[in-house]
Specification:
By secondary structure, the chain is of the alpha+beta class. It is 39% helix and 30% strand.
Length: 128
Amino acid sequence: MAKGHRSQIKRERNAQKDTRPSAKVSYARIPVQKACFVLDAIRGKDVQTALGILTYNPRYASSVIEKLLKSAVANAENNNNMDTTKLFVEECYANQGPTLKRIHPRAQGRAYRILKRTSHITVVLNER
């Protein structure tokens, strides 16, 4: 059993607010596995290096993540008054979103299912 009343537990959980600048894209039409290949390349790097990696990466996910990283930098600059030259990618991860189920017709009246996977991608920055 949890300690205290539901509202008390919620109050304690909300008191520990994360102040690091971040950006999130939900329902991105990229499978988690493909997004993680690109995210692994930029994790722990400073923002300028990460943007360089994303610019010249041929994968489709890199264009979406590049946009997301620029958004996180803008959030850090405008909301948290941080210096953009000192920022680095502290956390970046992709969680699985809902899967779109589609039908592909096959021979002899059969139908094969196509799974179009989506993901929720999050980038968290911090200052060195």
